[in-house]
């Protein structure tokens, strides 16, 4: 142990040499160690937004109810990291008893229950015309869009179209419940949705309901609305277009070699990919799940058989949006046939699909009312299935044309377009429901007396352009001659001369189409019947007729080597 004398000697030495002494203890020295610096705040997690697209439901609300289960499964997953945007790209209505008997209200009630964010005006949304039984205006006071506007007023979501304009002014339409675009909030992210309608709209619905309108360029309308939405703070912009494409392979979204260059691809290439994040297509009843010009496009067939999906990732800090995945079209039913009597949902997002109770309850009254009418027997039995598709005519089309002449025997030729026939008629006892869903449009009869030369010109247009049709009362024989496509009309074994006149029967829709008018049959030359619709006239005729129906013995239209469309060298003249 060091002695006290030594300690004092050391202290004296430190003082003498000027060396610093140890600092005196303070309260700070007795305090515990200070806390470590605060940890950096983690950046906000990316937000995943799943954009789900449907189109061309055509009133098949039974399938819509099943779809609701898939959407609910996805929403359960997304509520932990983002949200879902659900949009329909048009042609919601027209095609089933439930939809047509309510003029689209049944579809709107279902879509309200499913929580759709928006839907687009398709060409068939104009088919119902004024609210009520008339399919076209009967007087100047009738609102030719009355049924569409009434349905839109029921919707708890906006019905969109940015490019349907008034013909006389070029101004956007101003209809209640219908807007060019909308904005929704999804997990704190503003998502803009703009709707546009195909350039074919005015040619693919009843002309009397749209002849005061025109359709503006789709890409221009999308661009203008997308810029407005971006200015209003949209981080994501979805363009829903009732315009489509057609692809066969979905293995690689960037491989478009299996796709046909249809309308929606041209639209995508005309857009700035910095403005639009996703396109939802429709109208063609085909499928797309591809990237064009950097923009994902999804389209999923028709009749509620499938849906499309794109997953986007949004960085909340930077606002940057990236594509996580473009999903291939997902089938709603495990059954592969679109007209299968049952629909068994599969699994989705790791859970068995169960339709939502809200969707079931919303659709139940409309389905029950439609089912009662669907089951009505017509008293006719079909000996064989009548197929709706053929080239250029079909067995079912030929039979319908023959029934039209039976109902209106004063006519000599009946003409019906393939596009108006939506489904096959099954073998066995014929029900009202089967007939309705085969022929859902409320078109009326139209007739005119016209030169044979004009009728032949019309048939040349269909045969050379690939527009399928069926006829009754005359045989159509096509061949390639020196001048191009030649068409002969044979009635009771004799060739009809160009200068002869015939009475021609068709639908009011066809009578107003450009192809008919350009053939030398102006729409003003037709006599239009007020009622009943062609379908109802045929149904009443069959109820009275009864018995068994066999398929037509032979096709009424023949082409060179059975080829359709018919392409001949030279000019297609019809001579």
Explain what you see.
The chain has a 7-stranded mixed β-sheet with strand order 6-4-3-2-1-14-15, covered by helices on one side. The model is unreliable at 1-29 (pLDDT under 50). The protein contains 14 helices and 29 strands. It is an alpha/beta fold and 575 residues long. The termini are far apart. It has 2 domains: 47-369, Purple Acid Phosphatase, chain A, domain 2 (4-Layer Sandwich); 376-562, 5'-nucleotidase,  domain 2, CATH 3.90.780.
Helix-strand blueprint:
Elements: H1 4-17, E1 47-54, H2 61-78, E2 82-88, H3 97-101, H4 105-114, E3 118-120, H5 146-154, E4 159-160, E5 164-166, E6 178-179, E7 181-186, E8 189-197, E9 213-215, H6 218-231, E10 236-242, H7 263-269, E11 278-280, E12 287-292, E13 295-300, E14 306-314, E15 321-331, E16 347-348, E17 351-352, H8 357-374, E18 377-382, H9 395-407, E19 413-417, E20 428-431, H10 432-438, E21 445-451, H11 452-465, E22 469-472, E23 475-481, E24 484-491, E25 494-495, E26 501-507, H12 508-511, H13 514-518, E27 527-528, H14 534-545, E28 547-549, E29 557-558
Q: How much of the residues is beta strand, in percent? A: 25-35%
- CATH 2nd-level architecture of the largest domain: 4-Layer Sandwich
Query: How would a textbook summarize the main sheet?
Result: 7 strands, mixed
User: Care to count the β-strands?
Assistant: 29
Number of helices: 14
As residue ranges, the low-confidence spans are 1-29
Adjacency order of strands in the biggest sheet: 6-4-3-2-1-14-15
How far the N terminus sits from the C terminus, by CA atoms, comes to 135 Å
CATH topology of the largest domain: Purple Acid Phosphatase, chain A, domain 2
Q: How much helix, percentage-wise, in residues?
A: 25-40%
